[in-house]
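ok so for the tutorial part 2 we go from a plain amino acid sequence to predicted structure tokens. step 1 is just haveing the sequence, like this:
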Amino acid sequence: MNETDQRLERLATRARGAQTAASEALPYGFATRVLAASADTPDSTALWARFSLGALPLAAMATAGCFWWSASAMSADAHDLAQVFIQTPLFP
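step 2 — the prediction. this is what the tokens look like for a chain of 92 residues:
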């Protein structure tokens, strides 16, 4: 066995002999306090959902405006690009 395997075996042996915590149960009233604290804090996900849904029409209009503004330039560029591809010889 190499040194790494020996070290892992020693580590596993020590882990098997380690003592566990005496009590795994939650303290009395902990769950109640956590639920009460979570009810007191506002739900920020609903706020973000409201803002994102409100911004959706604005984003759609901005996208449509960008497409409309660049439509003439895109058609000229596409024509020029097609001409370049047509005139370029293809070599294997």
